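Colleagues,

For the teaching module next term, I've prepared a clean inverse folding example: a structure given as tokens, and then the sequence designed for it. I'd like students to try predicting residues themselves before seeing the answer, so please don't circulate the second half yet.
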């Protein structure tokens, strides 16, 4: 691989060279399935195919919040998609999400199954279906949707930009790390200023905007993303920290981040969720105990 100062792009990109970066084994320049594999379907109206990355956690937090409110129609089966093993390229998964990324939802509550992909679209779909966590009209709805879409546009700079070049790229490129560190700190300041004037992003009430932003920026501000707490001086964003801790106290948020999780403490990992009782009986620490 050329070092960044001596690389002159050829006239046509070929992509034949091994990049060496983390995830190089699953990155490809084409879409579509690589293998035939149907997806499993459980007994609940909602079938979720996911992994507990920040994008996945948004949806499991929402589903657990809906269930906590008493919406029985939000019962769901959460199936594990191991993206490092390329399971997002199976034919069944691609049929639900042609973009081959988690999370993907198959809503079987109506007469015809509806596929929903992109975490923001899934949050909006569920919020509208159950009439919850999204103001119905007026300026508050506009504010909620603005922050929801802010997250969709901003997090790729945090994950695909900063996180990639800081933590995963095979070489440390100062220009790339500096550029994205500046942008991520700017984003944290955007959030910090908003949360200085308002308890939650959309206003006084917790909403899908908070659910979208919290798994990324809440994890970041607690120093738990890419090990960059000190590098980005995250403790300075006191309003983001206050909001992060407040959401972390919600039982539904605590449950949501355990679903489809395959790392961390065994007691925090619920690989698949098919029943509310699974949180008590199916975490990895419980499954490891011989019966
Ligand atoms: N904009 C998408 C992003 C989803 C996404 O990037 N998912 C990642 C995991 S966090 C993924 O599935 N990556 C697998 C791959 O790129 O092959 C969303 O919000 O749903």
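(Answer key — instructors only)
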């Amino acid at each position: 691989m050329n070092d960044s100062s001596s690389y002159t792009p050829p006239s046509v990109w070929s992509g034949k060279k091994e990049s060496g970066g983390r995830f190089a084994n699953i990155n490809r320049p084409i879409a579509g399935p690589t293998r035939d594999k149907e997806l499993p379907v459980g007994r609940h109206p909602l079938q979720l195919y996911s992994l507990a990355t920040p994008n996945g956690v948004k949806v499991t937090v929402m589903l657990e919040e809906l269930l906590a409110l008493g919406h029985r129609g939000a019962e769901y089966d959460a199936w594990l998609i191991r993206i490092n093993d390329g399971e997002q390229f199976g034919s069944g998964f691609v049929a639900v999400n042609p973009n081959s990324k988690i999370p993907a939802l198959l809503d079987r509550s109506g007469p015809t199954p509806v596929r929903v992909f992109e975490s923001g679209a899934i949050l909006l779909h569920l919020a509208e279906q159950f009439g919850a966590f999204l103001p119905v009209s007026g300026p508050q709805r506009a504010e909620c949707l603005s922050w929801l879409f802010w997250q969709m546009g901003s997090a790729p700079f945090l994950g695909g930009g900063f996180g990639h070049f800081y933590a995963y790229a095979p070489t440390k490129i100062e220009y790339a790390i500096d550029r994205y560190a500046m942008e991520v700190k700017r984003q944290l300041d955007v959030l910090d200023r908003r949360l200085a004037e308002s308890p939650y992003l959309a206003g006084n009430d917790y909403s899908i905007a908070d659910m979208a932003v919290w798994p990324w920026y809440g994890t970041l501000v607690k120093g738990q993303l890419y090990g960059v707490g000190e590098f980005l001086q995250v403790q300075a964003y006191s309003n983001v920290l206050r909001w992060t801790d407040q959401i972390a106290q919600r039982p539904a948020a605590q449950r949501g981040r355990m679903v489809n999780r395959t790392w961390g403490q065994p007691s925090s990992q619920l690989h698949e969720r098919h029943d509310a009782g699974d949180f008590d009986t199916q975490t990895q620490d419980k499954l490891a105990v011989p019966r």
